[in-house]
Amino acid sequence: MEQRAIRALLEQVANGSVPVDEALLKLKMEPFEELGYAKLDHHRGLRQGTAEVIYGAGKTPEQIAGIVDAMRAGGQETILITRMSRQSADAISPSHPFVYHEMGRIGIVGNLPEPDGVGTIVVATGGTSDMPVAEEAALTAQALGNQVTRLYDVGVAGLHRLLSHMEEIMNARVIIAIAGMEGALASVIGGLADCPVIAVPTSVGYGACFGGLSSLLSMLNSCASGVSVVNIDNGFGAGYLASMINHLEGKHA
């Protein structure tokens, strides 16, 4: 159950529309649900502010569909499914509002929430080949309630392409810089922006890139301050972290 749902339940108790015992029963049933192949963590949203995300890789289409059914039955409005195949997407019940984004291998059950983050998250890529990882990051951020601006194919091989978007870079609350090859984009953006930069190395590149290791090491050794790095191809991790940063001011207001 999300924090918003808990708050709404407590307000219903306060105004007398929901009996105390009924509310207590709902909360008692929340910690986790045993599905046999998964233990669904209903308290994730209460603890962390974000409901459990379904990692699709390695799960059967039937398992993913079953988890979605249980989450919807538990009142979850928006469900994010990462690394989802088309086959798994086809197994989702037609009774659920659902959109599959093939580029980012992301499935979203329910409607995207209205953005409630402090500012805008910019997602920038070195090249078009980095777009699958970028879409995973961007859609994750959107599903978590953030305004997202996409700047694709603005890598250092044509630096003028990036510099033509200085307004978006300067106005960003968080920037996710995604690049393969030598991974230089993160350092360049880190030297321009006054906000946190989350670098995502991708496995895009020729043989000597070692499946993304070259860009990972370049980003870890960035001379620009304020650049942090997530794992190779981890668009989800970058989008999630960017969302946490973008919600910090509202959390403590």
TrEMBL record:
* SMART domains named in the record: AIRC
UniProt superkingdom: Bacteria
Q: Which residues form the PurE domain?
A: 119-251
Q: What is this protein called?
A: Nickel pincer cofactor biosynthesis protein LarB
- Species for this entry: Flavonifractor hominis
Gene that encodes the chain: larB
